[in-house]
Design brief:
This protein is of the alpha/beta class and about 325 residues long. The chain contains ten helices and eleven strands. The chain folds into two domains: about 100 residues, no CATH class; about 200 residues, von Willebrand factor, type A domain (Rossmann fold). Helix 1 packs antiparallel against helix 3. It starts with 9 loop residues before the first strand and ends in a 7-residue tail after the last helix.
Length: about 325
């Protein structure tokens, strides 16, 4: 997915480009002037003078001031039309909501020190990579969903709330967590809204199904990236009163893949703390942004002034050209 600015040239006052019709008209008038000048030279100049005037290098030098003047005129007209190009400057921030599974299985220690702590560390990396204009919020879910940090532009405050998240022992309500995140992402009007959802289990709780949450995201035009956290081996969470091991359920990749694909997001699979941190480190590159057209009017006018200064030097300077 390409999210960087795509090059395109636009104009704030495109109607002024009509003045460029003056350029070929001036060129035609200049050609007519040269023709008349040559005709006059034929009447009053000697053969040697005509040979000298026919010297190509001399002709080019004599015409250089006009070429520079025409170039400056063209640049001034383009500058007045206010040319704009997209630079690395986002027009508006993005509402980014991070959704973290806080169910009992996130206490597994196949990610050190636990899955939850590894997820929090990765989320912090993502928050620090966001732009100043971006807002960030955090939602956690287990048997239900709750807000850990309201949408805010203050990244340090969000990180404080992130660190305060504690391990819960409930089940996994993916639909509830996603729906609350959609509400949060929509709470502040913004150009772009993105939800990043992480889970290590199967939706087995809550009042909203993942399919309903997907439809809700599509209705609100919210892109959802999903991250499946887990390993390819069974993980023991603990033992029951009879000494039987309690195993963590494998992550429901199919549901997370569907959430991402149906909302225009990307799906990621993490198998250890290293890959998890790398996913979140690069996540900012997959956030769509609207890039702001930046005016280069001053640059173009400045270039025209430089050309005019050069032209003046050629006419009146040390190596002046008589025009």
């Amino acid at each position: 997915m390409t999210t960087g600015p795509q090059f395109s040239l636009t104009f704030g006052e495109p109607i002024l480009l009509a003045l460029l019709i003056l350029v070929p008209l001036i060129l035609l008038l200049y050609r007519d002037y040269l023709a008349k000048k040559k005709k006059a030279a034929l009447k009053f100049s000697s053969v040697e003078a005509l040979k000298s005037s026919a010297n190509r290098r001399i002709q080019i030098r004599m015409r250089l001031p006009f070429i520079l003047l025409l170039t400056a005129t063209t640049l001034i007209i383009i500058g007045l039309a206010d040319p704009r190009i997209p630079l690395n400057n986002a027009k508006e921030g993005v509402n980014v909501v991070i959704v973290i599974d806080d169910s009992g299985s996130m206490s597994a220690n196949d990610y050190q020190p636990t899955r939850l702590e590894a997820a929090k560390a990765a989320a912090e990396t993502l928050i620090k990579s966001l732009q100043d204009k971006d807002n960030v919020g955090i939602v956690i879910f287990e048997s239900g969903a709750t807000t850990a940090s309201y949408l805010t532009p203050y990244k340090d405050k969000a990180i404080e709330r992130l660190h305060a998240i504690e391990q819960k022992q409930g089940q996994t309500a993916i639909g509830d967590g996603l729906s609350l995140a959609i509400d949060m992402a929509s709470s502040i009007p913004n150009q772009k809204r993105v939800v990043i959802l992480l889970s290590d289990g199967v939706n087995n709780a809550g009042s909203i199904s993942p399919d309903d949450a997907i439809e809700y995201a599509k209705k609100n035009k919210i892109q959802v990236h999903t991250v499946a956290l887990g390993t390819d081996k069974q993980v023991i969470l603990g033992y029951d009163m009879f000494g039987q091991p309690q195993m963590a359920e494998p992550v429901d990749e199919a549901t997370l893949q569907k959430i991402a694909s149906d909302t225009g997001g990307l799906y990621y699979k993490s198998v250890d703390a290293g890959t998890l941190n790398e996913i979140y480190k690069n996540m900012g590159e997959n956030i769509d942004r609207e890039w702001e057209p930046t005016s280069i009017k001053d640059w173009v006018i400045g270039a025209a002034l430089i050309v005019l200064v050069i032209n003046a030097y050629l006419i009146y300077g040390k190596y002046r050209i008589v025009v």
